[in-house]
Amino acid sequence: MLLELDADQRLWQETVRDAVAKQCPASLVRDVAEAGADAEPLWKTYVGAGWTELADPENAVELAILLEELGRATDPTPFLATLTQFAPLVGDRFDPQRAGAALLDGISAHRDVDGWILTGTCRHVLDADRAERFAVVTAAGVFVVDADDPAVVTRRADVFDPVLHVGEVSLVGVHVDDADRLEVDAQRAHHVALTGMAITMVGACQRILDLALDHVKNRQQFGVPIGSFQAVQHKAADMHVAIERARALSYFAALTIAADDPRRRLAAAMAKASAGECQSLVFRHGLQLFGAMGFTWENDLQFALKRAKAGEHMLGGAAEHRAVIAAEYGTC
What we know:
53% of the residues lie in helices and 16% in strands. It has 3 domains: 7-91; 95-182, Butyryl-CoA Dehydrogenase, subunit A, domain 2; 186-330, Butyryl-CoA Dehydrogenase, subunit A, domain 3 (Up-down Bundle), CATH 1.20.140. The chain is built from 10 helices and 10 strands. It has helices spanning 7-23, 26-35, 40-48, 60-73, 79-90, 186-218, 230-258, 264-290, 301-313, 318-330; strands at 100-103, 107-111, 116-126, 133-138, 141-146, 152-156, 166-176, 181-182, 220-221, 224-225. Strands 1-4-5-8 form a 4-stranded mixed beta sheet, with helices on one face. It has a 4-stranded antiparallel beta sheet with strand order 2-3-7-6, with no helix packed on it. By secondary structure, it is an alpha+beta fold. Helix 1 (7-23) packs parallel to helix 4 (60-73), helix 4 crosses helix 6 (186-218) and helix 6 (186-218) packs antiparallel against helix 9.
């Protein structure tokens, strides 16, 4: 399994990087955070560019490349939830024109005369308030529910990342037909979600390192750039190593998904665990290298810091996935 990007993938990476830099600059992210600017036009740009059509598992590496750049830019759209959490659960029912979110727990399904009744509450749903459809995971299967159903109640929660949308969804006796019950591989979908979250965190961590390097090259102390100090260099090097390790594991996980390799379960867990450990180190060192400036609202560093930290708290943290890996190898 080749672990290097080929020529087409490198071209795709360059294309995406240039497009994201133009369409999602730091000024737009700040406008969303401070003034509540609408991210819908940016989402429509992604749709128009065909980026939302990368839902096929064969495109897992290309999707990972895109997600890394969106993580780096602190993307304010529902792209991550739609492509990595909703789309893998609905298969050919996915509509690239519409945003979606996944309800992964808290919902029960009961049979009735005409179909199924869904009841319950799912918390910490990524982009719950912006989704047009929900993929609802239950013990009886996965169901597709329209967000505008009168029996669906959504509420956005306050979280420390001002650009991130996280909410609570309650289904109060939602009726669905048998046609809306899907037979899908929920475990495989979970692996895609973990990998997508991991590579998004890698992108955010890379942004932290980029900003830190630019700062230490220009910040003067005792007449020289602080980047010339050995202690600063060691911290930057540690950040780089942590990011490269998490990036390699994330792309390996994407490769296992694209190849339908049975190792994808462990690969996805390793990617998410490594990304969690990476953000912990990069968050700490990145903030320290900026000194007091890193704590200010005016510094764009905050958005990357918060996006990386938020990723650790979604879909299980590093310790949880380390336990999965340990249990797997403990049975060998």
